[in-house]
Design goal:
Layout lengths: L14 H19 L11 E6 L5 H12 L3 E6 L11 H8 L5 E5 L3 H9 L5 E3 L7 H15 L6 E5 L4 H13 L2 E5 L8 H4 L10 E3 L3 H5 L4 E4 L11 H7 L7 H6 L5 E4 L11 H4 L6 H21 L4
Parallel strand pairs: 1-2, 1-3, 3-4, 5-6, 5-8, 6-7, 8-9
Helix pairs in contact: 1-12, 2-12, 3-4, 5-12
The structure holds phosphoric acid mono(formamide)ester and norvaline (NVA).
Length: about 300
Amino acid sequence: MTAINHYLQFTDLSASQYAYLFDRASVIKKKFKAYEKHQPLLDRTLALIFEKASTRTRVSFEAGMYQLGGSVVHLTTSDSQLGRAEPIEDSARVISRMVDLVMIRTYEQTKIERFAQYSRVPVINGLTNEFHPCQILADIFTFIEHRGAIQGKTVAWVGDGNNMANTWLQAAELLDFKVNVSTPSGYGVDEKVASITGKINPKHYQTYTNPMDACRDADLVTTDVWTSMGYEAENEIRKQAFAAWRVSADMMAVAQANALFMHCLPAHRGEEVDAEVIDGEQSVVWDEAENRMHVQKALMEFLLLGRLS
Ligand code: CP
Ligand code: NVA
């Protein structure tokens, strides 16, 4: 049996495969904007499995797959046997006999890995507690669209050392840029999770106690919710711990003059970001959200058909 191309974390693809995907996403986006049909996945079916809530991930995969000529089956924990303790291995064996591709949003990364191990078809990570690779794929594509290559650039991460932070760090090592990270004490990145080797080269990762210092001279400032899905019980305590980790106009002012602001969304204005920043001129959050669809179309096409250009 040939190996199946899963996309479970950012490191599952190489720098040269990312270069291809960014070019391809740009071609696919142009066709979409021109109302030009692009249906390489005619008659293919994508299963979307959500164990956590979603707006962007669902709409971008669902609309994207229809545009590629395929169709979609949507499952959640509450309306499938996944919520009634059917083993993930059995679910994988069954679902992957009927569809061509599976996207899963779930809790532990080990759960998606177990699903992939028993799947006959490629599995895409639509967010786990540890990683959110499709989002970083969209974010880097958005950076490239606005500012050109990300290699050698500096990204400031302000906030929780969460799935998004981990994935930014994987991308920094792979695509050769730097992430300045500032988190409240006790909410730092776990390098064993985030790094390819277990220890990230300081060329790609530097930590700062003060978020203002992390933003200094950055080409991109980015943040995320203080409380990720699955951690809601910690909400009140996190609100106190994270109070100084709100991206403000002052933080943007110490970054490069042409620095961009990104947020994977959903956002909480007045918590992790001030309204004047997310709604301000440096913010590219709406492009970032739209680009989820374009990059994921390129990704689905690549996982099923390989390089087409
Ligand atoms: N950014 C993102 O993944 O959004 P959803 O939770 O709405 O899918
Ligand atoms: N870190 C957030 C991202 C949401 C898209 C979460 O996991 O809830």
